[in-house]
User: What shape does this take?
Amino acid sequence: MSTTASRRPYFLVFAALMGLLVLTVAVSFIPYGRLAWLGILIALTIAAVKAVLVALWFMHLKGSPRLVRIFVVSGILWLLILFHLTLVDYLTRGSLPVSRGWVERTVRDR
Assistant: This one.
């Protein structure tokens, strides 16, 4: 029995990634019109599938111990918390007024 892993899964994952790349490019050329959010949703879904494939096979998470998986999931959750806090801060701010002080000062100084 050989101690080296088979290369076949890596080539299959690579082929799947290339197929998803072609799908991403094809989806980007579809005119969505008023449904632009649908194009963004499809592109993000394809990107998530590609990220999972890379993490499971090329980063060897598929056969990793449970503790490593817990750390990966906790890192993703922490990233989602930071995205959420940033989005909440951005969406709850009112429109900031544009300061005219700099423009007026430069016009007066001439």
